[in-house]
Amino acid sequence: MKKILCTSETHPLTWWLGDNHNNTIWITEYRNKNGYKAAEKVCKNFNPIDVINIVKDSKLKGRGGAGFLTGNKWSLMPQYEKGVNRYLICNADEMEPGTYKDKFLMEHIPHQLIEGLLISSFALQVSRAYIFLRGEYVQAEKILNRAISEAKELGFLGKNIFGSKFTLDIVIHSGAGRYICGEETALINSLEGKRANPRYKPPFPAMVGLWGKPTCVNNVETLSNIPSIILNGVNWYKNLSKSNDTGTKLMGFSGRVKCPGLWELPFGITANELLHNYAQGMKKGLTLKAWLPGGAGTGFLTPEHLNVTMEFSSISNVGSRLGTGLAMAIDNTFSMVSIVLNLEKFFSRESCGLCTPCRDGLPWTVKILKMLEKKRGHENYITLLEELCNQLNTGRTFCAHAPGAVAPIKSAIKYFRSDFEAGLLKNKL
Q1: How far apart are CA 166 and CA 189, in angstroms?
Q2: How far apart are CA 306 and CA 199, in angstroms?
Q3: Which of 57, 80, 251, 373 has the highest Cβ tally under 10 A?
Q4: C-alpha separations of 218 from 206, 225, 355 in Å
Q5: Distance CA 91, CA 112 (A)
Q6: pLDDT tens digits for the chain (429 residues)?
Q7: Taking CA 252 as the corner, what is the angle to CA 251 and CA 254, rounded to the nearest 5 degrees?
Q8: CA 362 – CA 339 distance, rounded (Å)
Q9: Are 94 and 296 in contact (CB under 8 A)?
């Protein structure tokens, strides 16, 4: 793997770990490396609106997949009203197949997330923040609980933080394991003890969120960026990137590559650099057939797209999405029908069932793909799949689950139609 020089100036998320990525940075080491200095700076010197403006100027985009500007999202919260509760929720329900970047941050640098929550809560004038944690992340829960206790003991959580009037409690809520909880209103319903179905929007959570109160939901990686932006400034943060998307991003490659993993890299590197310089290319005897740029809910791209830069707009321009930034490599030994079938089984199972197109349409795609995999597909099955993709597209379902689910089908048919045609009964040898 390409040797990476990791410093606080170049790798604000992961430099704390040095060369040892197996350790957890507990509070003594975190403080020795200037941890909680950004929170102290904010509590002693800034007003909430100052912090919101800094984050807006930084152009930090949400790292959960949608890429919405964080400062703008914060600005949607109504003006503070005494006696009205407000909430910040950290979305740590990381269920995207092949994605584990938030798990890495929580298990290795938990205080960075807690400090990010602290600063963000100060900006949003929130006194209680929740971490909605994926239920299977048992180790992350243990580590976060210990880190929160450490922060409380030193007065970084609780009342009068850093001598200010600011108060914050952080509560961990371990989820029951549903992919749909990545959608923020489904997450809020689940946190309230209800079935995890998405809500009608508007009203948006900023106005009517948790318990009917103003609420902001941000991703783990997004919040982990906040301390370094406060400590080092907006211009420094913007200059980390090689593109219009600012800062760095945890990116990676999984699949049958020589060195699967994740790395903190500047926006704007090419997918080719990510695959060959960091993941060391495909294993011996294999060639790259296709790749998903950022999770199962993004569209397939081909080796011809490897020169695209890893940033939100560039990936969108070639017909897919950056998503979580953790790419998945598909090698030449696989039929795309089998790959897509595996993905659609997952998406079908994870549909909340609220709207008919998603509830009935996704299992239908699974049935068709099973027949194609057995080479018993009717001659109109590919056309039928394309029509289903159209019916499950954006604007025709209640939330983004189904449109994300059919993105791999549409792109797989577009680039690898012959794989699907090989599954038709008329072509059976």
Answers
A1: 28
A2: 38
A3: 251
A4: 12, 11, 26
A5: 15
A6: 455 667 888 999 999 998 777 799 999 999 999 999 999 999 999 999 999 999 999 999 999 888 899 999 999 999 999 999 999 999 999 999 989 999 999 999 999 999 999 999 999 999 999 999 999 999 999 999 999 999 999 999 999 999 999 999 999 999 987 899 999 999 999 999 999 999 999 999 999 999 999 999 999 999 999 999 999 999 999 999 999 999 999 999 999 999 999 999 999 999 999 999 999 999 999 999 999 999 999 999 999 999 999 999 999 999 999 999 999 999 999 999 999 999 999 999 999 999 999 999 999 999 999 999 999 999 999 999 999 999 999 899 999 999 999 999 999 999 999 999 999 987 665
A7: 155
A8: 15
A9: no
Q: Enter the tokens of residue 236.
A: 């420094």
The token pair at 211 is: 């318990």
The predicted model scores a pTM of 0.95
Q: Which residue has the tokens 């027949």?
A: 371
